[in-house]
């Protein structure tokens, strides 16, 4: 069942002008809450942007204009920005990006389209959502009922992406 969510998920860039039911949004938030985090610190805060005026302002924040036309956008924000894991990577990136994937998959399970955005101005989004200084926005996620079709995606074969025991 989960594999089907992966197969049907795509980067949706056009949405119907239809609000998302509270139950569906609640299940997306619950999936986000259940996401793993380094040392279970859970350094995140989700900002659900639904206000039409704020959504319109996303045109000046993002490099695309479709987020402003989405029914809602979720800003995945994390603190604990200075913590580096033993592997050398910031834990907040791993935590925030893991949560982002949980949100994308649950949206797909709910029959909704979504798109993970990284092309945004950090200072402008922080100002738009009154983000405290100790947080950073790691991703923006548009969510809504799709008004486009998934185009055929060419994926690399298993042989191209998997090796065993040695690179």
Query: Could you state the oligomeric state of the chains shown?
Result: single chain
Q: What's the helix count? A: 6
- What would you call the shape? globular
How far from one another are the termini? 31 Å
Structural class: alpha+beta
The share of residues in extended strands comes to 15-25%
Amount of helix: 25-40%
Described by strand count, sense and barrel closure, the largest sheet is: 4 strands, antiparallel
Strand order within the widest beta sheet: 1-2-4-3
Report the C-alpha radius of gyration, rounded. 17 Å
> Can you tell me the residue ranges where pLDDT is under 50 for at least 5 consecutive residues?
none
How many E-type strands?
Answer: 4
Mean pLDDT: 94
- Reading the helices and strands in chain order gives HHEHEHEHEH
What do these coordinates show?
- The protein has about 170 residues and is α+β, with helices and mostly antiparallel strands.
- Helices cover about 35% and strands about 15% of the residues.
- It is built from 6 helices and 4 strands.
- The longest helix is centred in the middle third of the chain and has 19 residues.
- The radius of gyration is 17 Å and the shape is globular.
- The mean pLDDT is about 95.
Topology:
Blueprint: H1 2-8, H2 22-33, E1 44-49, H3 52-57, E2 72-78, H4 91-109, E3 113-117, H5 122-128, E4 136-144, H6 158-161
Antiparallel strand pairs: 1-2, 2-4, 3-4
What's the short version?
By secondary structure, the protein is of the alpha+beta class. The chain has six helices and four strands.
